[in-house]
Amino acid sequence: MDKVTEWCIRNIWGRDNFRWRYIPSQGRSGGLILIWDDITLNVEDELIGEHSISMKFSNRFDNFNWVFTNGYSPNEVTGRLNFWKELDKVKAWWQGAWCIAADFNAIRDETERNKPGGNKRNRKMLNAFLNRNALLDLPLAGGNFTWSDMKEDPLLCRLDRFLISTEWETKDGAMRILARWAGKCLNWPTLLNIMIEGKKVKENYVLKISVAE
Question: CATH number for the domain including 52?
Fold first, then answer.
């Protein structure tokens, strides 16, 4: 995903009422696309890093201000450390409602793998980040894992997740992730459904996120 055009984005989104940001991939990994409905969301500011895109939005229908971050944590050590520094920078930049959708390349505990193992340092860094920023890890529905190595006896992990700050608890309704299998790909797509007063928000209120590998 080293080159993305507006034509590509229009085909992904399916309508004309959109704006977008993207970070090109580095080799075969790390590309990010963030697309949003510009009828529903007004952009107040943005913070673009090497491994993340953060947009400060205000909802046009209720003037609620919040930040959405789309991110990808590299596998190599230096890139991973820079990823966590970028997220800390976002937190310093914005103190209000925050939603993060990212491939963290880390699990929180052994229940998020179908086999023993994993990098314990990465696990500690992820859990420390959640605790330090009082973030809620939204539960996964429709499956237990979001990644597979696609081998005959596959390794399955939950690497992708949505995190929200406690400010979202003051909003009516609830959020949760729906993970669905979509053929033979390395990552399951993750979809954030926003529920208000028990009803799903219209599709044009939903952010469409892509993490390319």
Answer: 3.60.10.10
